[in-house]
Amino acid sequence: MTDSGKNDPLPVKSKDGAERTARALIDSLASQYGLRVDDKTVDKEFYECFGRNHERATDGRFDLSYAVRAQIPGAEHGKALRPMRKKLEAEGYKILGYREEPSQALMDAKGGSDNLFISVDSYGRRNSNALVFSVETPCFLPPGVKQEQVSAPAPDADPVTPKDPRLALMAPTGPSRPDNPFG
Fold first, then answer.
1. Measured between alpha carbons, how far is 145 from 59 in angstroms, rounded to an integer?
2. 56 strand-pairing partners
3. Each residue of 9-29: pLDDT tens digit?
4. Strand partners, 100
5. Which residues contact 157 (CB under 8 A, 6 or more apart)?
6. pTM of the model as a whole
C-alpha cells in the first residue's frame, strides 16, 4: 500500500530558523542592488500545515509567510531585478515568472536548499517607490518532535472471493455502483 508521499519525512527547522532563513534570502537579494529592507514593514505569519488533500496533523508542523519592503525609485525596479535573478539562478532556483519594465517589476522563483518560494515585485501601482520581497516556506517540522504519520487512503481494490466456498455466494459479482454505499 502506498500513501503517495504523505508520510515522507518533513524538513526540520524551528520557527526562528525559518524566519532567519527567509530574511537571509531577502537580505542577500536586496544587497545585489545595494538595497536595505525596512524592518518597520515586516509582515510575517506562521501557519499550520495541511496536506495536499487537506490532511491535518497535530505535531506542530508549520510554514511561514514573510514579506518586507525596500525603498527604491520606481524607475529602477526592472533594473534592480537583473542581479537578483542571476543570484537566484546561481543558487539553484527556478525562475517561474519574470517581468521587467522600468517602473514595474515582478519575479517569482522556487528552489534553493530549503525549497523556498520567493517573489520580488513592485509595490502597488506603477511608479511606486518600493519593492516587496516575500518568501513562503515549505512545511517544516519543529526540532525534537516526532513526525505524526497521516493515515493513508483506503486502497482501491476489487473484492476478494472468500476461501470458504459457502461464503463465495455472498461476494459481490458485478461492478460496484458508486451510488450504492455497499458496493
1. 7
2. 50
3. 899 999 999 999 999 999 999
4. 105
5. none
6. 0.77
